[in-house]
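Hey, resending since the last one bounced:
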Amino acid sequence: MADRAIFQDFVVARSDRLLRTAYLLTRDWGTAEDLLQESLAKAWFAWPGIDEPEAYVRKVLVTTYTSWWRRRWRRELPSADLPEAAAHDQGGEPRDELWVAVGRLPARQRAVIVLRFYEDLPVAEVSRLLGCQEGTVKSQTAKGLAKLRMDESIVKELHR
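The structure tokens again:
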């Protein structure tokens, strides 16, 4: 019963930040909520053996997002009907052009940029979370930053 109370306290205390991280990965509030819920459910089953809960849930977030991204092409079907325009009046949504440009990056580069600069994690921790070499994190960071520098909307924003 004590584990349940500790888990509930963790969820209450850290959900907002983890949800923002999930949003920055997915660029969709509904998908971010689903991603966080699935990650917390996975964490619940492993809860008694977790030493660093936030790091563990963050790793589950990234690995679950990566597996969703890899399977996404199988779930999407072309449609003749365009979806309704998304509402952009979500509380706390990053609206500036930088985050819009980050959303246009490939999934791996976006994950690295979010973890390195939004979560402020060192290269070694990002490497551990993504399950890749530190050199991969560095190269993906460099490629992502180069794409952001070349993004017209960012260049315009910087020169205002």
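The chain has one domain: 2-71+93-158.

Sorry for the duplicate.
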